[in-house]
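Summary of Year 1 activities. Much of the first year was spent building the evaluation harness for sequence design. The harness presents a backbone, in tokenized form, and records the residue chosen at every position. We chose the following record to illustrate the format because it has been used consistently in internal testing since the harness was completed.
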């Protein structure tokens, strides 16, 4: 019963419309744009670092000798 009441309240929270009296200055748009650019750059760096490992995991590319050496070094330490 309480669970149903909570779900109903949660749904009604998003279905009600109210006006927001807020001001967004130009600096806010600039910060949002900067955050989007930073997220894209971080994603590109992440993909660049782990691209070869992803291809090996998917079976598109085979492991190289350096991959085998790194695996042995990781297991020994």
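For this record, the design step produced the sequence shown next.
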């Amino acid at each position: 019963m309480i669970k149903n009441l909570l779900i109903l309240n949660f749904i009604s929270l998003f279905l009600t419309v109210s006006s927001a009296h807020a001001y967004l200055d130009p600096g806010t748009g600039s910060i949002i744009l900067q955050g989007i650019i930073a997220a894209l750059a971080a994603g590109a760096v992440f993909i660049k670092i782990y691209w070869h490992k992803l291809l090996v995991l998917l079976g598109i590319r085979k492991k190289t000798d350096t991959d085998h050496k790194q695996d042995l070094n990781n297991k020994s330490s």
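The two ends are 55 Å apart (CA to CA). Quantitative recovery figures across the full test set are reported in Table 2.
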